[in-house]
Design brief:
six-stranded mixed β-sheet, 9 strands, globular
């Protein structure tokens, strides 16, 4: 059983986490993993996919974005209120909340899950930027609707930056969904219809 948040029951997940482990065999046992706190709700544990993506994001923050490890928190409540939102990853120095969405068991409307995940930061002053890092396949399946959702969220959360990312599995880096859109448009525009 896989819950919508990437939390799962005791049975082993054999999904994207396995792909990331093949990409970087030391992912589960590296210094970045020590920075990551496990997400647990009740008796449900974080899926391997969710943990792998979260660890990969932390690695990217440190190696590619030059963020100091001490500025990165995981499973961090961004307000002092007990019921305040908890970010999968929070970067204090950038007021950046990062959510990892595997989009398991969200049914036909993963767009609503992502919408709600981002909107929880609407009135939180300690969050100025929100990134959502998603699995590649759901992004491809819902690409057009994700672009519409991104536009909606940027209008709804004026004054906050909202970005969607996927993982370049071969390089282990984050890729902005809008970059993918531009690449697709460039490819499509370079192909002229053939006249017979």
């Amino acid at each position: 059983f896989q819950a919508e948040d990437g939390i799962r029951d005791v049975e082993r997940s054999r999904g994207l986490g396995d792909v990331y482990k093949r990409q970087d065999k030391t992912l589960r046992f590296n210094n970045y993993l020590f920075k990551v706190k496990l997400h647990k709700v009740g008796d449900k544990k974080e899926s391997e996919d969710h943990l792998a993506i979260k660890t990969l994001v932390v690695k990217n923050l440190i190696e590619k974005y030059d963020i100091e490890p001490r500025d990165i928190e995981t499973e961090f409540r961004v307000t002092r209120e007990e019921e305040g939102p908890v970010a999968d990853i929070y970067v204090r120095s950038h007021k950046l909340a990062i959510e990892v969405e595997t989009l398991f068991d969200t049914g036909a409307v993963p767009i609503l899950k992502i919408r709600d995940t981002v909107l929880k930061y609407k009135d939180i002053p300690d969050v100025e930027k929100i990134w959502v890092v998603m699995r590649n396949l759901p992004v491809l399946l819902h690409f057009r609707n994700l672009l519409k959702l991104l536009k909606y969220l940027r209008e709804e959360l004026k004054g906050k930056e909202v970005e969607f990312y996927v993982i370049n599995i071969s390089k282990g880096t984050l890729v902005n969904v809008l970059e993918i859109r531009e690449r697709i448009l460039k490819i499509l525009s370079s192909r002229e219809p053939k006249v017979q």
